[in-house]
Amino acid sequence: MASPTLTSTPHPAAEPTPPGASRAKDRGMDRGFRYLSIASGVLILLVLAAVAAFLVVRALPALKAGDAISQDVGWIGAGQSLWTVIGPLVFGTVLAAIAALAMAVPVAIGIALFISHYAPRRLANGLGYLVDLLAAIPSVVYGLWGVMVLAPVLQPVWDFLVRWLGWIPLFAGDSNGNASNPPRVLLTAALVLAVMILPIITAVSREVFLQTPRLHEEAALALGATRWELVRMAVLPFARSGIVSAAMLGLGRALGETMAVLMVLSPGMLYSFKLLVASQQQTIAANIAAKFADANAMGVSALIATGLALFVITLVVNMAARAIVARRKDFSGAN
Amino acid sequence: MSQRIDAKDLNIYYGSFLAVAGVNMSIAPRSVTALIGPSGCGKSTFLRTLNRMHEVIPGARVQGTVEIDGVDLYGAGVDPVAVRRQVGMVFQRPNPFPTMSIAENVLAGVRLNNKRINKSDANELVEASLRGANLWNEVKDRLDRPGSGLSGGQQQRLCIARAIAVRPQVLLMDEPCSALDPISTLAVEDLIAELKSEYTIVIVTHNMQQAARVSDRTGFFNLEATGKPGRLIEIDETATIFSSPREQATEDYISGRFG
Ligand SMILES: Nc1ncnc2c1ncn2[C@@H]1O[C@H](COP(=O)(O)OP(=O)(O)OP(=O)(O)O)[C@@H](O)[C@H]1O
Ligand SMILES: [Mg+2]
Question: Ligand 2 (ion): which residues have CB within 5 A?
Fold first, then answer.
């Protein structure tokens, strides 16, 4: 007799079959699924490895060229190597993504909480649908909107920030002590990015909040928790790892987003924290899009090298997220 | 301070479904009242109306009044949050907060009620509450470990500790011992006997011996038929209910001749 496995439950057959036969069939299915999942896991690894290999191989010429690269590639200054541009590009990419995340995550959590725990059900459904719709807008449209609608509106706001918060390095003004006009600055680009990543963060957080066990919500309520205390006691702690995942999904999109940044941001190659001054930073993705069309062989190689850097950043971000989620596993409620 | 509870003409609904009908019940301060009856007759439902936990279920509502010391819980201007801070509850299934440590779990309600509590007071309260729930010796070395790492019975006692840490006026218990071994059960019963000197306690139980052991009065709920609302058939001194109940249904139920 086949010993029963955890996953196989002999289902009632219409005609009587010997139980052994049905078990054997189930085990066949079981094995089939196992191979299928192993195969897809391996496939994903292979694709990742292939992408990494492609990036490394195509980037090698530029990485090995040293100072000579500046003769072939126009956007690398005379006498500079690839590293002197990758550094600021990585910096700009990460800065833009973090700024976007800093604006998007609190708003997304707020909206998600409102939908899951505050709004009457009908309103909640409508609102959730609306937020999901935001995800369907193409990024070119976001870029246009950023340049034509958002930027003019933001100009006075950025001026205000420079005037009153200019002593914070992030909000420092240009040499005249003003915010750049037109505001094709990193914070404008980051705000557009924030709107773009809002739907995914909201949607994931909302699902996580809705999955708070009823048992724990009732525990909090029965202790006399107000709605907000209920959220703090039972919902947010339970959702922590889900929120981190949601933020990482958003971060991934913000890191790789091209069009919106390309259209909004006036680029620069500095290690500059000035979010309100134009021509300071540039992101990797926007730089590739801007330079790829008329790049020669060495230029393409240099761009691919920056792409490799983006790949590594994304990988590191994901691993960091996993580490954060794992650190408090004991307390996660999963056990 | 313990207080008396009076439920008058209470009808309890889930949406349009009338789950419990026409309950009239008076509960004296500093007494233990046991509620017994077959599964699905509305004991939990009734219990949850006593701290307004019933209404957190969408569509759930209540007709009639529940007075605690003469104040109608369902009156206009009564804040359900304030009600729940005075009327503690222990649920059928243990529900410690998995993201909190054992000590934090005990203090969870206190932190809500008066945010500030200094460290030594907090430690004292944790110890006193855990001792009260007969859990101290098992967890004193791992107070900072998650509450979800305890056994089911330990979790339930942790929930009792959490409920008594806020010194409520009334303590509602919904089959608090259904996940406990006989020793923990006895400990909880002793605990109930102690708590009775300060609190008004209402306990739902399927265990007749337990009802007989811990309670002063016993109420029997029953269903006439499935789909019909549950009703309070009779409530009386526990001794009377178990020796000479007025109603035939009660007699049938406690003598095991039910259904
Ligand atoms: N959330 C709910 N929504 C709709 N109906 C419910 C809900 N909870 C309980 N009911 C119904 O209300 C009636 C009373 O249920 P209740 O849980 O109060 O019974 P009980 O006496 O506590 O039973 P048990 O002894 O099994 O715990 C049952 O018919 C049940 O199906
Ligand atoms: Mg029940």
Answer: B 44
Nearest ligand atom owner, CA of B35:
1
Residues of A with CB under 8 A from a CB of B: 121, 213, 215-226, 229, 233-234, 237-238, 240, 328, 330-333, 335
pLDDT at residue A332 greater than cutoff 70? no
> How many helical (H) and strand (E) elements, i.e. helices and strands, does chain A have?
13, 0
Instruction: Give residue A69's pLDDT.
Output: 85
Q: Are A218 and B56 within 8 A, CB to CB? A: yes
| B116, part of any domain | yes
**A241 within domain boundaries:** yes
Here the CATH number for the domain that contains residue A79 is 1.10.3720.10
Mean pLDDT of B59-64: 93
**For residue A332, which residues of chain B lie inside 8 Å, CB to CB?**
98-99
Q: What is the total count of domains within chain A?
A: 1
Place A64 in a pLDDT band, splitting at 50, 70 and 90: confident
Question: Which structural domain range is residue A190 located in?
Answer: 63-334
Q: What are phi and psi of A181, to 5 degrees?
A: -135, 125
Instruction: Write the pLDDT tens digit of every residue in A189-206.
Output: 999 999 999 999 999 999
Q: How far from chain centre, in Å, is Cα B21?
A: 20
Question: Quick check: is B197 in a domain?
Answer: yes
Q: Please give the Cα distance from A93 to A285 (Å, whole number).
A: 8
Phi, psi of A176 (to 5 degrees): -90, 0
Find the range with the poorest average confidence among A216-220, B10-14, B180-184: B180-184
Q: What percent of chain A has pLDDT over 90?
A: 58
B37 CA: nearest ligand 1 atom = 21
* pLDDT surpassing 90 at residue A330: no
Q: Which of B95, B96, B98 has its CB closest to that of A218?
A: B95
Q: What ipTM was assigned to the predicted interfaces of this complex?
A: 0.90
Q: What is the pLDDT of residues A273-302, one digit of tens each?
A: 999 999 999 999 999 999 999 889 999 999
Lateral strand order in the sheet of B60-68? B71-72, B60-68, B5-14, B17-27, B230-237, B217-223, B32-36, B200-204, B170-174, B87-90
Q: Which residue has the tokens 């406690």?
A: B254
Average pLDDT, chain A: 87
pLDDT of residue B152: 82
Distances (CA, A) of B232 to B19, B38, B68: 12, 12, 19
A131 domain residue, yes or no: yes
Cα nearest neighbour of A218 on chain B: B53
**Atom 7 (ligand 1): residue with closest C-alpha?**
B14
